[in-house]
């Protein structure tokens, strides 16, 4: 696979490697570290203008322990699997321009991107594993059935007028990107 070979061709000499080194080795691509780039990469948010250098700097491609760094790993993995759409939280939107630069340097196809609002606690604080966010088992232990959780998720994505218990299959036909809210969504107070 060309992209892995190109990345692996970087001489290690016991040091870490950055995106600028990979781009320099592939003269077809301009580094463009100081220019603002307008890229239509979010099919939910529309055209976005980013300066990858100020958002993520010159990201590492290899860590000191010899492992591939996150940006390189995710870009190569998506390319190898033929991923055509990436749906993730809005907190990851700033890294997208850097990942697009890597896709271009490695001649990988660019998937479409959607960045959804974050699911937050009733007080607006971020939910996450580090913050002890509720999983399906914890919700079930609180008496919230999977169909109820799915109904809330379907409502939060604009598939339902109100959160009512449902099945995942019933949400598929109701999904449309045009109905997905663009801001954060608060989970019900009763879930806490």
What count of domains describes the coordinates? 2
**Which CATH-level-2 architecture of the largest domain?**
3-Layer(aba) Sandwich
Relevant CATH superfamily of the largest domain: HUPs
CATH topology category name of the largest domain = Rossmann fold
Give the distance, in angstroms, between the N- and C-terminal Cα atoms: 48 Å
Task: Please trace the helix and strand order, writing H or E for each element.
Answer: HEHEEHEHEHEEHHHE
Radius of gyration, in angstroms, nearest whole number = 20 Å
Q: What percent of residues are in strands? A: 15-25%
Question: For the largest beta sheet, what order do the strands appear in spatially?
Answer: 1-4
Average pLDDT for all residues: 76
Counting DSSP E segments of at least 2 residues, the number of strands comes to: 8
Outline the biggest β-sheet. 2 strands, antiparallel
Helix fraction, binned, reads 25-40%
Q: Which term fits the overall shape? A: globular
- Quickly name the level 1 CATH class of the largest domain: Alpha Beta
Q: What multimeric state do the chains show?
A: single chain
Number of H- or I-type helical stretches: 8
Task: Return residue spans where pLDDT drops below 50 for at least 5 consecutive residues.
Answer: 1-16, 24-40
Find the structural class using helix and strand composition.
alpha/beta
């Amino acid at each position: 696979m060309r992209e892995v070979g190109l990345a692996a061709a970087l001489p290690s000499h016991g040091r870490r490697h950055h995106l600028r080194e990979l781009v320099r080795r592939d003269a077809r691509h301009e580094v463009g570290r100081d220019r603002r780039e307008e890229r239509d990469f979010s099919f939910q948010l529309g055209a976005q203008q980013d300066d990858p250098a100020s958002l993520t700097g010159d990201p590492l491609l290899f860590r000191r322990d010899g492992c591939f760094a996150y940006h390189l790993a995710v870009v190569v993995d998506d390319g190898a699997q033929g991923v055509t759409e990436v749906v993730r939280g809005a907190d990851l939107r700033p890294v997208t321009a850097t990942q697009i630069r890597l896709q271009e340097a490695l001649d990988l196809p660019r998937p479409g991107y959607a960045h959804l609002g974050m699911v937050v606690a009733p007080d607006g604080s971020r939910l996450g594993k580090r913050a002890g966010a509720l999983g399906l088992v914890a919700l079930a232990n609180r008496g919230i059935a999977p169909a109820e959780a799915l109904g809330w998720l379907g409502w939060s994505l604009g598939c339902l007028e109100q959160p009512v218990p449902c099945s995942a299959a019933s949400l598929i036909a109701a999904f449309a990107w045009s109905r997905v809210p663009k801001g954060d969504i608060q989970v019900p107070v009763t879930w806490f």
